[in-house]
Amino acid sequence: MKAEMKKTHRKRRKATGADKGFYIVNGIVMGILFFIYAWPLWFIVAASFSDPNLVTSGKVFLLPKGFHFSGYELILEYRDILTGYANSVLYTVIGTAVNIFMTILAAYPISRQDFVLRRFFTIFMVFTMYFSGGLIPLFLQVRDMGLYNSPLAMIIPGAVSVYNVLILRSFFMYGVPKSLEEAAILDGANTLQMLVRVILPLVKPTIAVLVLYYAVGHWNDYFSALIYLKDRNLMPLQTVLRDILIVGKIDMTSGGMEMEAVIAKLKTAQTLKYSVIIVSTVPLMLAYPFIQKYFVKGIMIGAVKG
């Protein structure tokens, strides 16, 4: 009987000609799409290690040519890049820590069934997701708080994301067994002890995902610096990168230099663009593999119910 069931199961799983045709066409389409999306990224990597003259002349396509480190050497010489890199690391680390702390403090109370104002605060926070005062009132508020041209302007205004609060709230409500909370209460744990010792260890997957969300947001944030900062020494890396890629701002001091030397330096500056893109994306690329295992679990558990 079991042998017959196995044979029947194998017959059902056998692909037909139409299925094989679909798989072939699907594979070709996916391969084309992969090339379309992956090639620009690979070209940036290849161009960052290529001879600036070959990159400028369009001779670099798939593989680096004239292996060169001039772009990365120029990064070490360009002070604004190093300063921006340090600022981005500072804003990302401190900002993410503040974000997680504030998100936990906001999500935990509105997840408690015995909190009387739970519904009111939930509606109040959700309201801010759809309606806001706009950019000018926000700027005036930041200025009146004394945060203008301060590193805190990159952290405080975006200290909490309501979307992330709702994700964590859902996990607090449905991802933590009620029996554990009841056992903690019977053991004499107060609200803070129950949160720190019982609940937070269980929400590590969701917190890991939120850390990734917040960290990516801080690392890629350049617009806030354009609005709230005027000191070049406080600018994050992405703002410096924007100036290089879009505005073209780079110190190409040519006093006493021959024209050929100026042209060579301009070509090197083109390679610098690709090198800076690589350097600016490496930190998140290195961090993602450590968080990936929590990503699907944390999002599905925290967002399916709610």
Instruction: Work out the radius of gyration.
Output: 26 Å
Total strand count, please? 0
Instruction: Indicate the low-confidence ranges by residue numbers.
Output: 302-306
What is the H-and-E element order?
Answer: HHHHHHHHHHHHHH
Condensed summary:
This protein has 306 residues and is mostly helical.
Provide a descriptive summary of the structure in words.
By secondary structure, the protein is mostly helical. 73% of the residues lie in helices and 0% in strands. Helix 4 crosses helix 14 and helix 5 runs antiparallel to helix 11. It is globular.
Labels describing this entry:
single chain, 306 residues, mainly alpha, globular, disordered C terminus
Chart the SSEs and their pairings:
Elements: H1 2-13, H2 17-48, H3 52-56, H4 70-77, H5 79-111, H6 118-130, H7 135-144, H8 162-174, H9 178-186, H10 191-199, H11 204-220, H12 223-228, H13 237-247, H14 259-303
